[in-house]
Amino acid sequence: NALKAEISAATAKTQEELEGYRLKFISRKSVLGELFADMKNVAPEDRKAYGQAVNEVKQQAEEKFKELIAGLESSDAGSKSSAPIDLTLPPNVNLGTVHPLTYIHNRIVEIFQKIGFNVADGPEIEDDFHNFTALNFPENHPAREMQDTFFIESNPDIALRTHTSSVQIRVMENQKPPFRTLAPGRVFRNEAISARAHCFFHQVEGFFVDKNVGLVDLKQTLYYFAKELFGQDTKVRFRPSYFPFTEPSAEMDISCNICKGKGCNICKYSGWVEILGSGMIDPNVLENCGIDSEEYTGFAFGMGIERIAMLKFQVNDLRLYSENDVRFLNQFKHLS
Ligand code: PHE
C-alpha cells in the first residue's frame, strides 16, 4: 500500500524525471521487478494472492507512466507556444502595392514639379460659379444639364465638380499671378458605368499664367511632359478643339506607344491616342478672377489619370481601378 501511494504521488516534469520513474517502477530491475522475483520465496499457498497484489500495483504503475508521458508531452507543446517571440523576424503580412492611379498621379506631379509647378487642392463639392460660370460656360451649355452633373439635393447651385478646372478659379481668385499650378483630384459625371466610362474618375489640371505666355509655351511644356511620361521618342500632335474656358483650344495626341505606329486596338489603327485637353485661358476667365487680361495671359490643360494609366499599363476596363481585386492590383507590385 505504501508503494501504491508512492506511485500515485509520482510526478515527472522533465524527461529525466520520467526516466527515473520508469527505472523505479517499470523496468525489470525496478521495485516491482524485485517483488516479482521474490515470488519464488513465497509459500506456495500464498503465491496466488501475492501475485495478484503485485500485478495490481504493476497495472497502476503502468497507467501512471502513460499519464506522466501524456502530461509531459502537453506541457512540452505549451512551452513551445509560449517561447519568447523573436522580434527581429519580419512580420508575416501581405503588404499592399502602389495603386496604378496613385503611381501615375505621382509621376505627373513629379514631372511638372521639375519645371516649377506647385500643387493646389479644391473641394469635390462645388458651386455653379467655380465649376461653370467663372469658366465661361454659357447659361444654356449642355454640360450644365442633369445628364452630366450630379447636383446636391435640390439645390441647383451645388454639385459634384465635373472637372478640376474649378481649382483654376479657386486659385486665381485668391492669389496673385504668376501661377504655375497643378491641381489633381477626383471628378464626377452622371454617366452609365461601363468599361469606358465611370461616374467618378481622376484628373490633373495644370495652368500657367504670367506676362507674355503664348501658345508656344503651352506646346513646349506639354511636349516635355509627354516625353517624360511616355518616353523620349514620343511624338505629339495638337488638334483644334473647343472648351468654353480656353481660346484657342486644342486636344493633344501622343504617338501610340503600344503598337509604335504599327496599328493596334488602343489607337484604333491611327497611330495616335488622345491624352489631354488644353488651350490658352480665355480672357473672360482671367477677368472673372480679377486678373487683368491685358497684362497677363496663360494656358491650361486637363488630363484624365485613368486614361493615361490605361495607355501606360494597357488596362482595358476602367472599372478595374476601383474594384479592389487583388489579382488586378498585384500586377503593379513592380511599381512599389
Ligand atoms: N476641363 C476639361 C475637361 O474636363 C479639360 C481641360 C482643362 C481643357 C483645361 C482645357 C483646359 O474635359
UniProtKB/TrEMBL annotation:
Record bears the keyword Metal-binding: yes
Aminoacyl-transfer RNA synthetases class-II family profile domain span: 104-311
Binding site for Mg(2+): E247
PANTHER family: PHENYLALANINE--TRNA LIGASE, MITOCHONDRIAL (PTHR11538:SF41), PHENYLALANYL-TRNA SYNTHETASE (PTHR11538)
Cofactor: Mg(2+)
UniProt keyword annotations, A-Z: Aminoacyl-tRNA synthetase, ATP-binding, Cytoplasm, Ligase, Magnesium, Metal-binding, Nucleotide-binding, Protein biosynthesis
UniProt EC number: 6.1.1.20
Chief place where the protein resides: cytoplasm
Protein name: Phenylalanine--tRNA ligase alpha subunit
PROSITE patterns found in the cross-reference section: AA_TRNA_LIGASE_II
GO cellular component, one term: cytoplasm
Organism annotation: Marivirga sericea
GO molecular function: ATP binding; magnesium ion binding; phenylalanine-tRNA ligase activity; tRNA binding
Record field: catalytic activity: tRNA(Phe) + L-phenylalanine + ATP = L-phenylalanyl-tRNA(Phe) + AMP + diphosphate + H(+)
Subcellular location: Cytoplasm
Gene it is expressed from: pheS
Top-rank EC class of the record's enzyme: ligase
Family classification: Belongs to the class-II aminoacyl-tRNA synthetase family. Phe-tRNA synthetase alpha subunit type 1 subfamily.
